[in-house]
Amino acid sequence: MDRLCKATAEDVRVYAAVTTGLVGEAAKRHRCGALATAALGRVMTGALLLAANLKNRECLTVKFQGDGPLGQIVADASADGAARGYVVHPEVELPLTNGKLSVGQGVGRGLLSVTRFTGLKEPVTGTCEIFSGEIAEDLTRYLFQSEQTPSGVGLGVLVGRSGETEASGGFIVQPLPGASEEILSRLEKTIATLRPVSSMVKDGLSASEIISEILQGFSDIHVLSETELAFRCQCSRTRTEEILSTLRDEDLEKLAEDGQAEVCCDFCGEKYHFTKEELLAIRERRSAV
Fold it and tell me: CB-hemisphere CA count at 13 Å for 184?
C-alpha cells in the first residue's frame, strides 16, 4: 500500500513515501513509456512529499517546464495524500545514459515552479531554474533557493522490461532550526552513502522502514504520522459541463453541429462524451441564468 510517513530525530525531520501503486496508475492512464513513467513518477512523488507540510484541504502544484522532448510535466498533490499528474509527451524514449533512463535529457532546461493553494485569496508560487532535469536535484535547489530550507531529496522509479512500474518512492530530509554542525555532517554522510530509494522499495521496505534506513545512527526516532496515498483526480462530468458552459454560444453551436463533443482530462485521461442534445441543453441553461 502506498504510504507517506513523517518522523523526527535529533533535530532532523524526514518525510518518506512509497508511491508504486499511484505512479503505476498514472503511467497506465497516460500510456507512458519507461522514460515518461520515471519522470512523471518522480515529480508526483516529490509533490506528495512537499504537500506533507500543508494543512488539511491545502494543495500544491509542481510544474517542470523544460525544453526537453518530454515537454511539460505537472503534478498536483494535497495534504490528504491524493495526487495526479501528466506529461505532455508520454511516448518519448531516449537512449540510456550509463545504463539508466535519461530523465535529465528528457526534461531539459527551463523553469521549475511550485504553487501552493492555501485558501488565501491568491496562491503563492515559488520558482527556480531547472538545474539537471533529474527532478530530485532540482527540488533540492528549489527548497534552498525559494524557501531557504536546506534539504536532501531522493526520488526513484524502477520500470520493468515490460514497462510496468516495479517500485517508486522518495524522501525529503531537513535539519530543524538550531541543528548542530555535527548533526548536519552526519546527515550529509548518511545521504551520500544511502542506496537508491527505488531499491529500498523494490526490496519491500515501507515508508517508515525507509526512514529507519535514512536515520541509521540517530537516536529518538519519533514517527509523527502515516498517510495513505492514492492517485485521485478532481475531474467529473459535472465539472466538465461547467467548463463547457463558459464557451461562447457560437462555439457550443459549432460543437453541436459536429454531432458530439469529447473532453479529455489532462491529469487522468478520463474522457467525457456529450451528445448534440446535451450541448444545446448546456447552452440553453446558461442563457436562462
Answer: 9
